[in-house]
Amino acid sequence: MKILIVDDEKDVEMLFRQKFRKETRTENLELVFAFSGAEALEILEESDPPNVVYVFSDINMPGMTGLELLEKIKDRFPQINVSMISAYGDSDNYNKAIKSGAKEFFTKPIDFESLKEEIRNLMKT
Amino acid sequence: MTIFKYILLFPLFYLVFVWHSVGQTYRSDSLLNSLEKLNDDSVKVSHYLELGLEFLGSDINKAIFYFDEAISLGNKLNYKKGLADAYNAKGRAYAQQGSFQEGILSFQEALKNFHDINDKTGEANILSNLGSIYFLLGNSTRALELHFESLKLSEELDNKLRIGTSLNNIGTVYQKNPNTINESLGFFKKSLKVFQETESEQGKATAAMNIGEVYFLKSKYDSAIYFHQLALELCDGTLDATFPLTQLGEINAQLGNFQKAFGFHRRALEISERLDAKFELTQGLIGLAKTQRKREDFESAVNTLERAKIIAKEIDAKNELVDVYLNLSEIHAFVGDYKAAYENEINAKSVKEEIAKSSTEKMIQQLQFEFELDKKEAEIALLQKDTDLKNAAVFNQRIIIFTSLGGLVMFIIISISLFKNNLSKQKANHLLQAQKEEIHAQREKVESAFDQLKSAQAQLIQSEKMASLGELTAGVAHEIQNPLNFVNNFSEVSSELIDEIEQERAKSADKRSEAFISEVLRDVKTNLNKITHHGKRADAIVKGMIAHSRPSTGEKEPTNINSLCEEYLRLSYHGINSKDKSFNGEFITIETKTNLDPNLPKVNIVPQNIGRVLMNILSNAFQALNNNEFSIKKSINPGSGCKPLVTVSTKNKGNKIEISVKDNGPGIPDSIKDKIFQPFFTTKPTGQGTGLGLSLSYDIIKAHGGEITVESKEGEGTEFIITLPV
Lengths: 125, 726
Hints:
The structure holds two protein chains of two kinds.
Chain A: E1 2-6, H1 11-19, H2 21-26, E2 30-34, H3 37-44, E3 52-58, H4 66-76, E4 81-86, H5 91-99, E5 105-107, H6 112-124
Parallel strand pairs in A: 1-2, 1-3, 3-4, 4-5
Helix pairs in contact in A: 3-4
Chain B: H1 11-20, H2 24-37, H3 42-56, H4 60-77, H5 80-97, H6 100-116, H7 120-136, H8 140-157, H9 160-176, H10 181-196, H11 201-217, H12 221-235, H13 242-255, H14 258-274, H15 278-294, H16 298-315, H17 318-335, H18 338-506, H19 514-549, E1 557-559, H20 561-579, E2 591-595, E3 603-605, H21 607-625, H22 628-636, E4 645-652, E5 656-663, H23 670-673, H24 693-703, E6 707-713, E7 717-725
Parallel strand pairs in B: 2-4
Antiparallel strand pairs in B: 1-3, 4-5, 5-7, 6-7
Helix pairs in contact in B: 2-3, 3-4, 3-5, 4-5, 5-6, 5-7, 6-7, 7-8, 7-9, 8-9, 9-10, 9-11, 10-11, 11-12, 11-13, 12-13, 13-14, 13-15, 14-15, 15-16, 15-17, 16-17, 17-18, 18-19, 20-21, 21-24
């Protein structure tokens, strides 16, 4: 199962890989990283239908924002789950995201327990 | 002969005279009786007048007495009509008496009164009478003037009787002068024509006999007979008929019709004798004598003439007497009685002399009178002039008074208007003063408002700094959350890794993998580095916030601009480096270059503030180049020599120095170029820019008396140029 993480902070990749080192090693979980919305879309378009089943995206990024990316993904690949991870935990961003079809809304600092829970729930189905 | 020609002189007089001569005594008595019963009113004036007219034919002095009574009462009553009639009658009485001067004066009074009551007919009559008097006085020119004046008035009144009379009188005047005999004939004929339109038998007769006489003088006997016959038919039996009858007699004698001639003479004499008209009788006798002489019946002629002589002497008819004497002289001479002829000749001469004398006297009298009259007129004129002058003086005085009054009024008006003007000016001044004060107050208000605004602006900038700090808190929260996220999660994961190491070491030596332990330890070390890095990053963000919100209190000091530029270029480069992960990432490499003028003098500035400006501009430049897509493009084409590049250069420009910060980034779109120095304007995503950087930079450079400008071209790059005075 392929999961895409989108964030302009490059250290996110290192963090996520360490956090999910057990899961990637023992379970069928593959992590893919993109550092901008455009890069994320490129990865999604690599195969048809895309093998990514879940996208976690930061909101505040240079260029395409996470919310724009959310809309584009929901438009082109409505079957893919998208959840937002943002430092902005305000209701405005939250409402926008949910309205646009986001599955969950995680705030930074990331609570990896709840994130792992979400991924585990996904893997069970 | 001439006496007949002024038969029209006093037409009224003659009529009254003729009609009332018989019953005169009776009528005057009754008038006198009724007079005593009358009050002093206009009726009594008329009665006096009538009474005077009654006596006019018999006792001129009595007539004049009653006219004077009428005049005196008329004056008392100021009864103008009565006065006019009375003066007219009195004038006629004087004229009849031969007192022409008095007559003239009376007529002039009458004229005045008629004029006063605007009785034009009366005026025309008086003018005619005056003309006749002047004619009798031998002043033909004046006579003509007056008759023509009368004619004009009469024509205006369209009074035929009066027109006819005036025309006849004019003809009479012309007839006196042999040179104007034709003119006289013309006027007599006109007169006849006018009279023929009226019922006046006397008028028609007079005009006709005058025409007849003119024709007789011109020896046109047929015409003369025709007109005399015409006259005779109109007035036969009256005194007027004696003249045409005598003339007809003489004309027939000239034609040799003696029988006819004697018939006419007899009829003329009969009438004269019947009416006891001695003057006409004299003339009739002379005419008969002439006919008898023509018949060569000299004895009868002499007898007739002797009879005429007695009557002429009786009535003092001098002209007729001369005629008688001359005829007698001629006849006596013709029959050879030279002594008698001589005596008669002497007598004629003496009467002629008398006539001449009386004529001369008359002339002298006339001249004297005229002189007196002129003098009086001159006096009157003088008086009039005097009065006029006085009037003029009074008028002038009035003018002066009115002018003065007018002037006074004008003065008052002007004074009032000036006063008003002054008042309004004062008002205006007050208003102006008030307005001035108002303006002053307003200005002060504006000034204070401006001061308030300035302080408000300062406060606003300060509070905006704080607000932007608040805004930053939200924005910066993200910035801090990110490093915090890493610090927290890397330390957490490191802790987990150490747990794993411990688990691994707890294993038996054979199962234990030292390689795994080393790998995990390496990861832990990397994580610790990351934690340090992100901790520092958070620290820088917080410091930046503090620097931003703290008011600058720095003092100016001579500063080496070159080293300041180098310092801040380094700081900003590393600042960006520390902030942005992509900066030193796999794609972008930004180069920096300096081109500093070694001859740059030290400049008196606040280094921290100018440093902040440089920091702002440089950060912008780096951020512009940090745009991934753009920088990738630049990096992909290394052959173009267009690597992302920031150049800082300085230049000595004499009394000022120039700092240039240039990048080859995407440039600033024209649409926002003029907005970049405005406060709170930003193109950066939320939390990455406050929109105050360039605005504050602008204020700082201005505060140093310098300038900051921007030159930019889209797709080529941007250059900020700062000039500072030395």
